[in-house]
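I'll show a sample.
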Amino acid sequence: MTQKVAVLGTGKIGEALLSGMIGAGWDPADLLVTARRQERADELRARHGVTPVTNAEAAKTADTLILTVKPQDMGTLLDELAPHIPADRLVISGAAGIPTAFFEARLAPGTPVVRVMTNTPALVDEAMSVISAGTHATADHLAHTEEIFGAVGKTLRVPESQQDACTALSGSGPAYFFYLVEAMTDAGILLGLPRDKAHDLIVQSAIGAAKMLRDSGEHPVKLRENVTSPAGTTINAIRELENHGVRAALIAALEAARDRSRELASGTKD
């Protein structure tokens, strides 16, 4: 943990990553940050003890650069960084839809690039971070990336060709669950429950179901069948979900998210 790591464009996810790394034992003195606004940089220094620098200083000083700016801002950032990044620096991208080839074409030949898609549960150290190697990234680079992102949750290595699917499933995934909780809360109100009680019932049910999925080793079909009694309440609810095409709608939604990720990769950012 003696390498210097810089987080560039430190927003909520970037700050969560800093907090997780410090909690995992990284020395704040080895962590650099960049931010668009000086007030934000000062806030990060006061809160975490990290060192704010310019993008150019980060590129010259840090051993690992984690780029967390929005996809549409990545080209401009790389134009600024490219003259200052030696080819032995590890560059980690957290931008949705942008392939490692995009970075490799703009940086010094041989620069190792790793692509990571994480998600917002990084804010509570329960992220799912999906990691893919670029052309020049080695097993050591991947292990180092796993060490960093493992500080805020679980990591999974996949071929880069699967990144768009992972973005649709996991990167956007928390929003689907929030959407479902929102709909179920509205249903609870319709059924006569106060909003706060409906919310508490659904959230705790979601936490319990997630832990059963994670810890039981059972297939979700088996877990669902365990709740579904013959001619009972659950099977009637499941029938209505099927009648309204919820399963097909979810599949179509994930395909749409994957396709948008591909569009971002091809430069369609409107």
In short: Strands lie at 5-8, 31-33, 51-52, 64-67, 90-93, 113-117, 127-133, 153-157. The chain has a mean pLDDT of 94.
